[in-house]
Amino acid sequence: MGKFLDLESVVYSIFGSQSWKNENIPTYPLNLVKNDSNKEYIRISIIPGSQSVNINSSSGVLIIDIFTDYNIGTKAYFKIADKLDSYLVNKSFFKNKYALQLGTSSLAPSGQDPETRSLFRAQYTINFNFFGVD
Amino acid sequence: MSYRNMIDSNLRIAFKLLKDLVEDIYIEKITEASFDFETNEVVNNIERIYLQAIILDSSKNNSKTNSVRKQCLIKKSDVGTISVGDSFNYKNNIFKIVNSIKDDGSILLFDIEQEVANG
Fold it and tell me: What is the C-alpha separation between A75 and A80, in angstroms, rounded?
């Protein structure tokens, strides 16, 4: 595969693990129309940047939109963010000849979701370095 | 007869009276969509429904591509519910349902769009 597909594959393997599935937080990638009635879920965006140590490496940011029910306070999305932290912050993942190293996280509430006004959206962000060898 | 049945019955008559203005189409509804993060594959259940639709309007507004947008009307009783992203096959062209879907309980009004090869 190529750098970007390999990066996607390593990131998605975190959310394909049995332990993450056991958390029961519905997880979606970008560009997929969700058609269930879950009010709490996350959507993952991988944003590769330009800095890298070689042509097979990249650094960037993982943005995870956390959706929770509207008008229920902040606890629900903080709870999901804490779970994400336990899987991601300062963790390293290895797959084939690639390594993904994650940094520290931040969390910013975005407010009522403009597309689905009955949901609240918060944005969880974490930096990554992705290393690949030729 | 209930009001709902009366409306549905009159709609069926209206579609018959419109004759060739009514198009035979099919919609592929995604009834269940999930994503398998282990295989990086979308897992879909798709249901194909053959029905009739009225194409109300057609427009090209995009300056960078030859995309065509059409406004469609169908009987809700033919299809139940549809979602943005479902496919709409009309005259052997596959459109995507792209805009908000207006549902008055009896008819569904929505936009479909696709890119065309030669304007």
Answer: 9
The CATH number of the domain covering residues in B3-115: 2.40.10
With beta carbons under 8 A apart, name residues in chain A contacting B45.
none
CA distance A118 to A71: 8
Its domain, for residue A105, covers 3-132
Sheet containing A98-112, strands listed edge to edge, beginning at the edge strand earlier in sequence: A27-29, A41-48, A58-69, A119-132, A98-112, A92-95
Nearest Cα to A109, choosing from A98, A97, A118, A120?
A: A120
Asked if B36's CB is within 8 angstroms of A35's CB, the reply is no
What ipTM score was computed for the predicted complex, to two decimals? 0.83
**Interval A97-129: pLDDT, tens:** 889 999 999 999 999 999 899 999 999 999 999
Cα–Cα nearest to A130, from A106, A104, A110, A103: A103
Q: Are the beta carbons of B103 and B95 closer than 8 angstroms?
A: no
CA distance A117 to A112: 6
Whether A12 and B40 lie within 8 Å, measured CB to CB: yes
Residue of B nearest to A17 (CA): B38
Interface of B with A (CB under 8 A): 30-33, 35-40, 42, 83-85
How many residues in chain B?
Answer: 119
- The structural domain count of chain A equals 1
pTM to 2 decimal places: 0.87
> Chain B contacts of A28, Cβ < 8 Å?
35
> Which chain A positions have a beta carbon within 8 Å of B85's beta carbon?
33
List the CATH number of the domain containing A66: 3.30.2000.20
